[in-house]
Amino acid sequence: MVRPGIGEGQQPSRIVAPAAAFAFLAAKGFEEFDCAREGFNRPQQIEYRDFVCTIAAEQPEGMQAQFEGILGARPATLCGMAELVLGSWVKSEGVSS
After folding, report:
1. What beta strand segments (E) does the chain contain?
2. Cβ atoms within 10 A of the Cβ of 45, count?
């Protein structure tokens, strides 16, 4: 799924989600996006999953609320969606983003 950039010069927000979540995400301004055709390859998708899951696991409430305000969903929700598509996130030991 992709959400067009909000504001001039902002990049669109690309997320990974199962088809079952499309209606929920469409209500938040996201559009269906063909990852393969649009160049959002599997390593990039995994990088996204790891990023959003790290935020969900490590960042304070204020940061998570700010993230939700921007994307319309909590990091933990987006993490879970990405895990359904890509498999479980495993926290790297000794590495913090």
Report:
1. 2-3, 13-14
2. 17
